Amino acid sequence: MLTIKSRCWICMLPVWQASVGICSWCEQKLLLDQPRCLSCALPTDAVSITCSACQQSPFSWQGTITAANYLPPLSKLLHQFKFSSQTALAAMLSRLILLNYLHYRRHYQWQKPDVVVAVPLHPKRYQQRGFNQSDLLARPLARWLACQYWPNAIRCTKLTSAQHTLDRASRQHNLDRVYDVTTTLYGKHVALVDDVLTTGATAREIVRLLQQQQAASVQVWCLCRTL
After folding, report:
1. Which Pfam families does this chain map to (predicted)?
2. I want to staple 14 with a disulfide (CB 3.0 to 4.6 A). Which of 4, 100, 103, 178 is the partner?
3. Rounded distance, CA 39 to CA 42, Å?
4. Cis ω on the peptide bond leading into residue 72 (within 30° of 0)?
């Protein structure tokens, strides 16, 4: 008799590999998402690979990968991961990002990163939560892709209001002099990992600092994209 090792986090049907955490049906349902703009990762039509807004004013980095929109069931799982300390979800959520990266690399010849970095938390917020969700997403990605992972390359030096509590106009101002790059990234192709991309204010500020360090390229990888 076969022993059920685990159940899918979404539909609760049995899965044989507990480390995967999601059944193949739910995985395909999540990954068969609508086409996305390669720059901002917002949904676009099937013909264009860059939305009209990004053709006029693209993000300052080379492209954005996201697993799905910030909607159930993924938004619910992310909330459990981030606010209910369900850190066992990290490997499964990271794998969704990985599968999207491999798709982009295969179809659009995206650059493989030399270094993976994560959006940091302020030490006080880290102490309160006990972990940095972006760090937990980034570590397995670097391992699976045989890239370097530099967990301390970026520091958060100022405790600010949480970005999700602010309106669009306040988000960029909230990030003024918040981050610091602690090591040289000259000539490196960098993947910046975060959990959610909303306005892009956090990514924009960190990418600006990475570009000041003369990183060769920066891609932004995240689990969810808000609409």
Report:
1. Pribosyltran
2. 4
3. 8
4. no
CA-CA-CA-CA torsion sign (33, 57, 60, 124): negative
> CA-CA distance, 132 to 134, in Å (whole number)?
6
Phi-psi group of 79: left, alpha or beta (phi > 0 → left; psi -120 to 50 → alpha; rest → beta): alpha
What Å distances lie between residue 210 and 145, 158, 182, 203, 220, CA to CA? 21, 18, 10, 10, 12
Determine the structural domain holding residue 127 and report its residue range. Answer: 63-225
How many domains, in total, are found in the chain?
A: 2
Phi-psi region of 31 (alpha: psi -120 to 50; beta: other; left: phi over 0): alpha
The verdict on 153 and 72 lying in the same domain is: yes
Phi and psi at residue 47, in whole multiples of 5°? -90, -50
Residues 74 and 156 in one domain: yes
CA dist., res. 88 & res. 86, Å (int): 5
What gap in Å lies between CA 168 and CA 163, rounded to an integer? 9
Confirm whether 130 is domain-assigned.
yes
Burial letters for 177-205: b for 16+ Cβ neighbours within 10 Å, e otherwise?
Answer: ebbebeeebeebbbbbbbbbbbebbbbbb
Which CATH number does the domain housing residue 110 bear? 3.40.50
192 and 221 Cβ atoms separated by less than 8 Å: yes
Mean pLDDT, contiguous 10-residue spans, the chain (227 residues): 68 77 84 82 81 89 93 92 91 93 92 97 92 97 97 89 53 67 95 94 93 96 93
